[in-house]
Design brief:
alpha/beta, 10 helices
Length: 276
Amino acid sequence: MNQDRWLAVLAGELSRRGIAPEQAGHVVAEAATHLRESGEPPLRAFGAPEEYAGAVAEGLGTVPRPDVARPPAGEVRLDARGIGKRYGRRRVLENVDLTVRAGQVAAVIGANGCGKSTFLRICAGLVGADRGRVRVRGTLGYCPQAHGTVDFLHPDEHFVLVGAGRGMDRAGARAAGRAAAAGLDWDGAARVQARHLSGGTRQKLNLVMAGLGEPDVLLLDEPYQGFDRGSYLDFWQQVWRWRDAGRAVVLVTHLLNQLDRVDTVLDLTPKEAAAC
């Protein structure tokens, strides 16, 4: 099944499951972007379109929220002020502000192409802003929407490589990586090169690497692409564990339908588009 056919079937299946046209359009567009940037065939990245549509439909339902007392938010961990960015004549971001404290989760939402990933990459220091500033207090972990893995390395080798940059010894990095992988229902000890992992499993690998060394700030760009229903729920449980441990989490998402899952929402949809 080629990419265009897969996306068309996905759109039809989302409609059949009662997903609103605007929401379905976001899902299809984000999947198309992932496929274009990763170069993967759709069946390998996401599986059958019918199954992925079902997982998305379930994921859009209510995710159980742990009923536990939370300490008040702590010090400011990430502070972005007046962020502006253009690519040629196209304005991507204009005067964007976001403050996230320790123990908070912030969601970055908005229409496709409104600069969500660009904003996160600016916060990670991977892209320079034309205007404004970003201050990060503490260490930082970043999970990209695609890429991020090395084709010929095993998961353990990824854990060791990233862990070394965060002051972890080899055994500690392997143990921490495997434990985090198990929390996402994945065997991180498997001796398989990253190029042979499915798209969803590689996203789990990216997510695990982002959390190695317990960074103070986690920047997550659509980290659940290709996850099934169980992995999606596991992902939110991990987000809440990070939050309850005092981490600051910034999450780019299009599947957010229950705003009480997070503490702060940054909507980057241009005002003129939102008014249409």
